[in-house]
Amino acid sequence: MKSNVSYNIIGDIHGRTCWKSLVREDCVNIFVGDYFDPYEFILKEQLLSNFYDIIAFKKQHPETVLLYGNHDFHYLLRGEERYSRYNILSAPAYWRVFRETESLFYGIAFPIENKALVSHAGVTKEWYAKYIGTYHSEPPADVAKRINDLWKIDKQAFAFDTNVNDLEDCYGTSPTHSPIWIRPWMLRDHNLFAGTDIMQIFGHTQTEGGIMKDRNLIYVDCLGTKEKSYVMEA
What we know:
The protein is α/β, with parallel strands linked by helices. The chain contains 7 helices and 9 strands, in the order βαβαβααββαααββββ.
């Protein structure tokens, strides 16, 4: 990526078309994932059309970053795990479009220079140590590369059931949950970058009042309540 650019981070899509008014020509646009499984009823054809519009935007603006979320993951796994609003009838079509467009996706995590790491849900110390190793102040670019390299060879490392360390956890509150699953209240206490100035920017858990900031955590899953994105200057 070019230096001295701005980054525009767009929260969970879930079939919404408001991203079209949020993307910016003067920024690198980053989508944090969850392209399907809407909260309201939307026809499969409309959902696919919206997804292909995002893909077309990526092709027109190659610097655009597409990340995966948990609602994309369960279609990529062909239903081995099924989360809320999983659509069994549409699943084969969603699996096909993800396979067709795989080369256009960046992966799970994207670094913004030495300032921030963008992912769907955030990265905990425990998950990182379990699969990659103890964190020793590596820059976000190194962290993102290691996470994305792991994604290419071991998608089960990102699964929900694989990382539950509490039999009663049905929501994503185990500290070993992955960057597509951890909930923010657990991330807050187990943040990979705790005690540093490195930001984590993520979606996954919908906010009620728009973009939220808490120490070095920035929540961007707000499109269901506020049609806003988060812009970060590099």
